[in-house]
Amino acid sequence: MQFAEVAVQNVRGFSPAGRFALKAGYLVLKPPSAESSPLAGLSLALLFADGRGSDASFIAAGAKSGKAALTFVGVDGVTYRVLRDLGGSGTLHRMNATTQQPELVSSDASEISQFLRGQAGLPPKTTFEQVYCLQPAQLPSRRPRRPAAAAAKVDPKTSGRYPSLASASTVLPAEDIPAAEAKLRALEQELVASTEVDSLQFKADGVASQLFDAEQRLKGTEGLKVAISEAEAAWRAAPTPESLGLPQDIVNRLKRHPKVLARRDEALARLNADRENEAEARPATVPPLTRNTGFWAGLGAGVLFLALAVGLGFGVDRTFRYLALLDIPAFGVAAFLALRYVDDLQKATRHGSKENRFDIREKKILEEYEAEAAPLRMAQKALDVEELDGIAPALERKELLGARVAELQDQLQTMESDPDYLAAAAQVQSLKAEAEALNDELTQKGTYVRD
After folding, report:
1. Disulfide engineering: 31 pairs with which of 37, 57, 79, 324, CB 3.0-4.6 Å?
2. Domain locations in the chain?
């Protein structure tokens, strides 16, 4: 591991806010005040957080809250960043090598600890604290001094108790045999305890690594489960004829709409053709009979011939009475014109009734089309599409989403039935119990510090 950056805000021993790049080599952090910067303790609090808020002791005096972040490169070559609200929660982020953007790994303290040990190569806390950190309490000058009389009583150089390796050939016997034996027993007990602690810590690290790998395999299905939830929500929200109050056969109506439209246009074309034929067959107008000069001419000729036949036949010669025969063609012409006038009137009357029938036919054609097209317009409005062609894709979306949900569920079932997944699921509980037992045993045995 290699530290890359430290960022602080309201942390005692540091500036109120700052970011400090930690380059390769030796670096010295100069505190802004007489108080030293607790970099070692802050690093331990960030990397080995217990989630109980003990790191709140690093908050600067007078500040209500504080934040600290540590960026480092793990043994896997990946850059990680631990960020904590002192006394609160924390998160672990991993830098994406492709997008150069941080990705959240976990916000759980135990998961962060397991990940750092198993993936980033973080050593145990005891090893990190005693091997990689040098704190003031570990300096020999900070250890309790022996009384002056005891110090003057024995001179290691002159007494030969601690001879140099260059000049010592034999080891002198201990002057105080009981004290030496007690010291030996204490050292042997310490060796046994340290061996047990190291063994337990090694086992705990191994179990934590196995638990992390197993949980990562189980978490491999979380993305698929989220996708299934989103697909199911989209499927439930997709419109259907029932939810929109449309007929069940709306799709079939849409398919046959072009034929219905063509049938309507064809019926209207025939209707217009019949109207035009009817208009050509009837006279444009029927003038009054009193304006017909032919009628008056025939009627006048008949009256004239009748008067001549009567007047000349009785007053001049009986032969003139035959002029009355000419009344027949004259009155016949007048009668013919009168009958034709009556016929024109009848045709005009029949045209009015036919026009009503045409209107009834047109209304029926439009009503039939409207009954077929009204649901389509309702669907167009409900689906908010501009064209009728957009209705079918919108209504078919639910079916497509249903197929997508089924496909994702099949993928999830395949993943969950995989032997590795089943083995990981079976190991998680046992590994958690084993890790908890090891941690409890480590807590009971505690740690030790050599004098």
Report:
1. 37
2. 2-138, 241-401
